[in-house]
Amino acid sequence: MMLQTARTAFCQSSTRDVAAAVSHDTNRRLDVKIVRDIEYARVADQRLMLDLFLPEGPGAAENPPLLVWIHGGGWRGGSRAKPPIRRLTDAGIAIASISYRFTDVAIFPAQIHDCKGAIRWLRANAKLYGYDERRIAVGGSSAGGHLALLVGTTGGVEELEGTVGGNEQFSSSVLAIVDYFGPSDFVLRGRTQPEMAYSEKAGSFALLGGLEPKSAGVDKRLERIASPSNWVGKGDPPLLMLHGTKDTRVLIDQSERMLDLYKDFDLEAELIRVTGAGHGGMEFFMGKNFQTVQAFLSDSFAKLEK
What we know:
Order of helices and strands: EEEEEHHEHHEHHHHEHEH
Structural class: alpha/beta
Number of helices: 10
Helix content: 25-40%
Strand content: 15-25%
Shape: globular
CATH topology: Rossmann fold
Largest sheet: 9 strands, mixed
Number of domains: 1
CATH superfamily: Alpha/Beta hydrolase fold, catalytic domain
Mean pLDDT: 89
């Protein structure tokens, strides 16, 4: 079935200026240097790893901007090995695909502590690997989209920063957020999708302490503080969301909630509604959808140069 795309947007200002520093040309191909299995932290006996995808060769800029990619998998699985946005390297954007602790090891806030620790590590080691520590964005899909939203909306929030990996003199703040169909409001989800929020089979149930010994279910405090919607406020970075209109795993009202909150705070946000799409699929990472993500990141990075 042919899938179409419709957009809903609220913008404080235009984000469609062509960036000089990062090309929008999706036809060119750059060489990519891949550095795998880099340890960014160790928690107890678990090594937390990331992979770097660095554009290089003719046409590649020195010290490119960086997108930190957080994979999905219900906070209990998934892999960093093959980020679906890898072709962004052809636009001169470096990618760091990170791992984080799953819920069988630790519940929230371990996952956000790991993501923020990875970003601090990436800033601390930017000169070693050759990307721009100032121009860092975050993105993710599903559970990774949730964590990307939370990273972006909690810059400077000590409660969720953690100390994973050290490097606490560096910031974990980002310039932009790309969210693919991630949950944003667990309280809302409990009302609109109780079967997904409060079932023992649901990934978020374990994330929020529902499977802990002597637990009476989801920890209501964690349900609130783990919700990116709880943290939206002045100064949050530009946000691009992509969500399928037929997603039954994470309803599109989760992305609509973030769009409304960004509008309330006069922040820059856009929601791409992928008509007929469910929870995931390559249509999110191809064609006009991919071009929109590339342009959004390029423009966000370019603003720092102005």
